[in-house]
Amino acid sequence: MTDAEELAAIAALIEVSDERAAFARLRGRLGWPRGKELTQMPAWLGLLAELARSHGANQLSDIALAAVRDPDSPDRLYDLGYALIDAGAPSIAASVLWHCLALVGDSEEVVCELVSALESALAYDDAFAVLEQHAALRTRSFLCEYLYAFNAAMTGRLDTTRTVYARLVPDSPETETMRATIGAMLERADRVAGVMPLDARDLRGWHYVLTGSLLSHLSPYGFDEPMHGRYAWLQDSLPRIATGIERLVPLVRAMNAPCVYAPPGRDHEILARAVSARLDLPLVPWPAIGVPAPGVVVAYDLRTLTPADVARLQQRKDDQVFFAHASPWTQDFPIAADVTTLLYQTLVPPWGENTVVDPETREVIQSPPDARSVEDVAAELLASPGLDADDRAADAPSQWDALVAATWPPSVGPRTRLWAGGPVPSNRFE
User: Fold this and answer.
1) In terms of DSSP H, where are the helices of 304-418?
2) Which of 275, 341, 339, 329 is nearest to 303 (CA)?
3) Are 270 and 380 in contact (CB under 8 A)?
4) Which pairing describes strands 295-301 and 260-261: parallel, antiparallel, or unpaired?
5) pLDDT, tens digit, for every residue of 271-301?
6) Where are the domains of the chain?
7) pTM beyond 0.90, yes or no
8) Do domains 3-122 and 197-414 have the same CATH topology?
9) 422 φ, ψ to 5°?
10) Cα–Cα distance for residue pair 299/253, rounded to 1 Å
């Protein structure tokens, strides 16, 4: 289909208010990397403005229209790229910022914003390539040099990360923190050298190096291709959760955690109650103020923690373990758990609303959430035997044991950010 035909098709979808389909097709052409090659930018940005307006994003629409009126203005394109990142459309933002960069050359501001968009789109190889092409800029920009080291790590180029790390000279508390982020990754890589392969299939090893978190379970579905241990959409199961608890228990018993905490929320409370019973430790109330430590903080889904509770877990304390059964992998999160069972894009808990097959009609229907008490659901979880032998074998248990032996327990100090993606690729829903 020609560009003119595609523009007309997207306009027709907007006309009938099919915003989801219109956005998918627009992203397919205007998004990265195809959007780099487009020549009729005003026409595409006009559709973007129209779609944003129909979705109620009037401010974004106005910014896009400003770029339509002046498509050769770096300021207009930069403003639009920035707004698109904020709006959750990093792939389109990257294309817009690429066109902006073509107008301004070696601009630190534009290069860094383009790299930010590419990172959010999990296009770390492309972010690395952009920084590689701006060597002169990196010599005078600490931020660009830091991003070069970071994206080298996110693409598995640890030799480059080490070389650049040696050149980073911080001049403020902020740049000290940035350099320390890279240094911590390299220290963790040294810790697992010879233990983990750190190749393009070593999800566990890279998850630890990048985040400091231990990943106890690898998805067996599409392991060789295209998921490599992560989940896309997952309807969770009690056996999977029970196996995660089973692998957590010896880690906690190696420390002196006196109790179990559950952040507010039914999902967290169910899991924490089961962990408490399995460890034979008391489940104590979540503190109204202060830090939940020492003890085991148990969360079902990391992404559902409130910002206030995340802030209280930012620093790892003595004899504190933070366990999150599930962690997202397609978006950054402010902190990574010390231990997590699995990585997901979309998650449905086993006691939530589930997709099932009606035994009489054979139709796929949605079953209502489990209305039983927290205590009853936790008791059923405790009774689960865990994953079967085949799934356990797919989890590479000897590799898990080796990783734990090399890295546990974690030291006190700030918890690392949970970075999305990494050197091990996986398919995801857009």
Assistant:
1) 307-312, 374-383, 389-394, 397-407
2) 329
3) no
4) parallel
5) 999 999 999 999 999 999 999 999 999 999 9
6) 3-122, 197-414
7) yes
8) no
9) 145, -170
10) 18
Tens-digit pLDDT profile for residues 347-363: 999 999 877 666 777 77
Helices (H), 73-157: 74-86, 90-104, 108-120, 124-132, 135-140, 142-154
Residue appearing with tokens 């962990």: 275
Q: Token pair of 27, please?
A: 């992203």
Q: What integer is the mean pLDDT of 183-195?
A: 98
Report the 3 state secondary structure along 25-91.
HHHHHHCCCHHHHCCCHHHHHHHHHHHHHHCCCHHHHHHHHHHHHCCCCHHHHHHHHHHHHHCCCHH
Which is it for the CA torsion 224, 156, 215, 250, positive or negative? positive
> What pairs with residue 340 in β-bridges?
215, 324
Regarding the domain delimited by 3-122, which CATH topology (the fold level of the hierarchy) does it fall under? 1.25.40
Interior/surface letters 220-232, b for 16+ CB within 10 angstroms, e for the rest: eeebeeebbbbbb
Between the two ends of the chain, the Cα-to-Cα distance in Å is 21
Given a contact cutoff of 8 angstroms between Cβ atoms, the answer to whether 91 and 34 are in contact is no
Distance CA 61, CA 57 (A): 6
| Cα dihedral value 172, 82, 105, 44, nearest 10 | 170
pLDDT at residue 365 greater than cutoff 80: no
Domain 197-414 has CATH 3.40.50: yes
pLDDT in tens, 206-245: 999 999 999 999 999 888 889 999 999 999 999 999 999 9
